[in-house]
Amino acid sequence: MRIDCVCAVPQSFGSFLDSSIIGRSREKGLVTLEIHNLHDYAKDRFRHIDDTPYGGGAGMIIQCQPVFDCIEKLKSEREYDDVIYLTPDGHTLHQQMCIELSNSKNLIVLCGHYKGIDQRIRDSLVTREISIGDFVLTGGEIAAAVLIDSVVRLIPGAVSDAQSVLDDSFMNGVLDAPYYTKPAEFRGMKVPEVLLSGDHAQITKWREQMAIEKTRNRRPDLLDKSEPT
Ligand code: ADE
Questions:
Q1: Which of helix, strand or coil describes residue 213?
Q2: pLDDT in tens, 99-153
Q3: Quick check: helix, strand or coil at residue 51?
Q4: pLDDT reported for residue 163
């Protein structure tokens, strides 16, 4: 899989792209990640990529020209499954969307910054608009990092124990069960007896029950969705 990330502030990614599962997936060749700085596509010597909004209002808007130049160059080099724009007014990201995106060959991920991007970019280049939640971040780079992380970890081979991904919250339509590790007792708090029993059928049953209970308490909307209509 290849992801081309188009953004105004590449340094926002920090060490994220080289660390942990993402870093290892890149090393293993499971994913190619390229960051493109929109300022490299600016035409003036101050490398401006934004301007004030027509009609007035606060904030700056990323202009068409650098984004069109960058994305058209990428599209001339290969075919892309999607051009994703990260924006708080997009469709809210969920696990099923991540699974779908993890089957892509090539993706462009466009990050907004400042007040947003010129609507003509959205109308002509963007095929999918995604929000990571009902809150507003300073820039799309952090949202892109969230998207990339949640998608790349689903590529077969990215996470060493594939079962661990299958057990994640949302994978079965419910939240994940609680987990414990050694010691069996810490400050008087004991690990549930069933987990020490070695009875795998009982352990699976217990985890399923706990997952459903937690989902009923915290996210009853998820259970409603899985019920037949
Ligand atoms: N950019 C700013 N806020 C965002 C959000 N919540 N989701 C995606 N992109 C964003």
A1: helix
A2: 999 999 999 999 998 789 999 999 999 999 999 999 999 999 999 999 999 999 9
A3: strand
A4: 79
CA pair distance 133, 139, nearest whole angstrom: 13
Residue 55 pairs with which residues in a beta bridge? none
Domain boundary among the residues 126, 152, 178 is at: 152
Buried b (16+ CB within 10 A) or exposed e, 121-147: bbeebbebbbbbeeeebebbbbbbbbb
Q: Would 56 be classed as within a structural domain?
A: yes
Nearest CA residue ID for atom 9, ligand 1:
87
Mean pLDDT across the stretch 163-170? Answer: 85
Distance 6 CA to ligand 1 centre (A): 15
Closest CA relative to residue 111, chosen from 143, 81, 134: 143
Note whether residue 229 is domain-resident: no
Which residues surround ligand 1 with Cβ inside 6 Å?
Answer: 86-88, 112, 131-133, 135-137, 140, 143
Flag whether pLDDT at 229 surpasses 50.
no
Q: With CA atoms as reference, report the closest residue to 7 among 137, 103, 155.
A: 137
Number of folded domains that form the chain: 2
Distance in Å, CA 216 to ligand 1 centroid: 28
23: CATH: 3.40.1280.10
Look up the domain containing 46 and give its range: 2-152
Residue 227's pLDDT band, with cuts at 50, 70 and 90, is low
My answer on whether 36 and 123 are in the same domain is yes
If asked whether residues 97 and 20 sit together in one domain, one would say: yes
CA separation for the pair 32, 34 (Å, rounded): 7
Asked whether residue 107 falls in the same domain as residue 38, the answer is: yes
